[in-house]
Amino acid sequence: xxxxxxxxxxxxxxxxGPVVVFYHxxxxxxxxxxxxxxxxxxxxxxxxxGFMKLAEYSCDQYNVALLGSIFYAGAFIGSNMAFQSDSSxxxxxxxxxxxxxxFIFDQFYFHExxxxxxxxxxxxILIVAFGIAYYKLSTQIVxxxxxxxxxESDDLEITAAGANQLEKTPETK
Length: 173
Hints:
This protein has helices at residues 2-11, 17-43, 59-85, 88-94, 97-108, 116-168. By secondary structure, the chain is an all-alpha fold. The longest helix has 53 residues, at 116-168. The protein is flat and about 95 Å long. It starts with a helix and ends in a 5-residue tail after the last helix. The relative contact order is 0.06.
């Protein structure tokens, strides 16, 4: 689902980023409110609150939710700008850095014990992602240098051809 959303964001290159972010937030609000209302209607109020359950959270929980929303908005704006300005494959490769952040927070904030298989799998994913990103960047740099040299040699050929033409034309007085 995320890949489809990112490709759709890429297709909206002509639309300014803030407009995409606004409609993303509006759509999220409508879908979430609809889900909560449907859940309350279909399952009844046996879960203990539904819409009114929002009033039962503590101040710390609201602060964490607000902070999470702010960071998510920043991440969405950043990924939106990245997908609109560069190729989807390269931006998706760089998005694997979220794995590193997830492991850091699992270890230091949630105090989860990491298994060796998880660490090895994460390292393999990151090594492959960074290897491909390095290869793409180095290939792009080489293509840029070769393209610049080609353009310069073409300009020299055009200048030389123009100079030859000037030498061959008779001077008019």
